[in-house]
Amino acid sequence: MPLVTSKELLQAALEGHFAVGAFNANNMEQIQGIIDAAVEEQSPVILQVSQGAIDYAGLSYASTMVKVAAQEANVPVVLHLDHGSSFEQNVICLRAGFTSLMFDGSKLPYEDNVRITKQIVEMCTPVGIPVEAELGKVLQSRDNVSEDEVRAAMTDPDQARQFVEETGISSLAVAVGSVHAMTSADAELDIERMKALREKVDIPMVLHGSSGAREDSIVEAIQYGVCKINVATQLNMAFVGAIKQASVDMPDNVDPRKWLSLGRDALKEVVRHKMRTFGSSGQATSSGFASPAKSFRTAELGHLE
Ligand SMILES: [Zn+2]
User: Fold this and answer.
1) 112 is catalytic
2) pLDDT (tens digit, 0 to 9) for every residue of the chain, 305 residues total?
3) CB contact at 8 A, 97 and 67
4) What are the residue boundaries of the structural domains of the chain, listed by start?
5) Are 34 and 128 in contact (CB under 8 A)?
6) Of 64, 95, 193, 226, which has fewest CB within 10 angstroms of its CB?
7) Ligand 1 centroid vs 98 CA: distance in angstroms?
8) In CATH terms, is domain 6-297 a member of 3.30.300.30?
9) How far is the CA of 253 from the centre of ligand 1 (A)?
């Protein structure tokens, strides 16, 4: 089916107390592994492309591969820009047919974050494309951050309410204890903060850096409004791990398909596990997502592509 936008998808997740996985992909095999998992689990799915992925694959390869994958799948697929770094990058991705955008102004002063986010929302609203923005900072593990630094960067609930009102965003990425690019899943999320955020913010919230957070903690956070969960590092670990093992098992192989297909299979199993954990398995049709009559179908936006 054609791509759908994330707006109604996340709203349905909010009402249904589940979360939709947003999986990062950089190449064809990763996209296929994610889509195959979604089809097998009958789960809606968000395929997200980061600035790094755009640099690596090129924007038109990255976006076209996801569109082809969506076309062949019988589950709702969103093409999302992960951590868009500027107004311009969001314009470019809107024009390339992305059905969900993100501006990450979390490192900017609050006023600048509001100003640029608002500009992007104003650009996207007439064509029905939702925008995610980030308040507080989800830090990078490569910075070797301390507990205190993670705590100091967390999202303030009162400021979050103000930010949502001022910008008109569709979803809010919050910092509640997770850290990007962690290779062990042992961080505990600040559930009390999630509860406080839920009282102040009525739009869907987004968890970044989920690979480093404990799964029981993630499941609890879903009950307090986390509707989109970004997963990258664990997928990369599975994909690369399988290929490393294959290089040991088949040292003389020169056919890339024999190695890459093992990476794809390993990644797919991780995605399936995440979909079951997040509660999105089986939600592709039960909420009417697959119905062609749903308003989030983007066929009418074809002129943008
Ligand atoms: Zn992130």
Assistant:
1) no
2) 999 999 989 999 999 999 999 999 999 999 999 999 999 999 999 999 999 999 999 999 999 999 999 999 999 999 999 999 999 999 999 999 999 999 999 999 999 999 999 999 999 999 999 999 999 988 887 667 888 888 889 999 999 999 999 999 999 999 999 888 888 888 899 999 999 999 999 999 999 999 889 999 999 999 999 999 999 999 999 999 999 999 999 999 999 999 999 999 999 999 999 999 999 999 997 555 654 333 333 444 444 44
3) yes
4) 6-297
5) no
6) 95
7) 17
8) no
9) 36
92's tokens: 């470019």
Compute the distance from residue 180 Cα to the ligand 1 centre, in Å: 6
123 within 8 A of 93, measured Cβ to Cβ: no
Q: Other CB atoms closer than 10 Å to residue 72's CB: what's the count? A: 12
Catalytic residue among 82, 112, 148, 202: 82
Q: Is the pTM of this model over 0.90?
A: yes
Q: Tell me the CA–centroid distance for residue 210 and ligand 1, in Å.
A: 9
